[in-house]
Amino acid sequence: MPVGKITKALSGFYYVYSEGKVYQCKGRGVFRKQKITPLVGDEVTFEADNQKEGYVLSIGKRKNELVRPPVANVDQALIMTSAKDPAFNPLLLDRFLVLVEANRIEPLIVISKVDGSKEEGDIHAFQELYQQAGYTVILTSKDKDIALEEIQSHLTGKITVVAGQSGVGKSTLLNHLDPELDIETNEISESLGRGKHTTRHVELFEIAGGLVADTPGFSSLEFQELEEDQLPECFPEFREVQHLCKFRGCLHKKEPKCAVKAAVDNGEIASQRYEHYLQFLEEIQTRKPRY
């Protein structure tokens, strides 16, 4: 049986890429009975007499899956934020980072609109802060070519989802990476202060030797699925030192001889990141149970 990857899902059809061709397929009826939904990014076996009439027969094991955007087997999340319009928001960025880390997806941070920003000095300080935490941070400005080359080098051979709030330039960046995409963008509404661009379906585009999903991004930034003991694992700089904590399962809040708190005190971990961690921990601990 031929093997391929679903690159688009639309109106009940799955578009499977295999050996240079795309096959339009339907899912087997058994998937519905088993409550399995094929996702963009799935490795599948399929059968097809031609490129218009095929059937997805089986779905390979997933290394991860996102609910929204509905994509499987994601390697990397390009988290885009901006220096201005909308203003850089480290709390929101940390929220995105935690959700991405919780799904075992490697984050890549891109900060747009850096040039001419009166906050440029602050942005460079934030770049240093996040690099110290273990992240790759790329700044883009009007002279995009250098940044684009660097971003392209991170896309090769990976499935990447693009995430970030409206108006930061996600679609604009994708159009610069591949002008043939011609993804529709709208200027930010001055009165609302947010972008109006909406993407209607998930599709993987081939860019720079990798596959990139132009998606609606994370619809919910709440930590509904995350438990308190999982949260420290979502901060890479905590992972580096928490084996030195006195207590196993240390939540790095009030416990004595906590290596994370010691690292915050001596400046090895940024105090702002730690404060955001405490906010997220309280949010998880006080959320209402779901039944």
Structure description:
The chain is 27% helix and 23% strand. The termini are far apart. It has 8 helices and 11 strands. The chain has helices at 29-33, 90-102, 120-132, 145-155, 170-177, 236-241, 259-265, 271-286; strands spanning 3-10, 13-18, 21-27, 43-48, 54-59, 76-82, 106-112, 136-139, 159-163, 203-207, 210-214. It is globular. It folds into 3 domains: 3-59, Beta Barrel (OB fold (Dihydrolipoamide Acetyltransferase, E2P)); 76-214, P-loop containing nucleotide triphosphate hydrolases (Rossmann fold, 3-Layer(aba) Sandwich); 231-286, Probable gtpase engc, domain 3 (Ribonucleotide Reductase Protein R1, domain 1). A 6-stranded mixed sheet has the order 8-7-6-9-11-10, sandwiched between helices. It has a 5-stranded mixed beta barrel with strand order 1-2-3-5-4. The protein is an alpha/beta fold and 291 residues long.
Strand count = 11
Task: Find the structural class using helix and strand composition.
Answer: alpha/beta
Total number of helical segments? 8
The level of helicity is 25-40%
Principal-axis shape equals globular
- Biggest sheet features: 6 strands, mixed
Total domain count: 3
Radius of gyration: 21 Å
Question: Could you report the average pLDDT, rounded to the nearest whole number?
Answer: 88
Pfam families: RsgA_GTPase, RsgA_N
Binding site for Zn(2+): 245, 250, 252, 258
Family: Belongs to the TRAFAC class YlqF/YawG GTPase family. RsgA subfamily.
Binding site for GTP: 112-115, 164-172
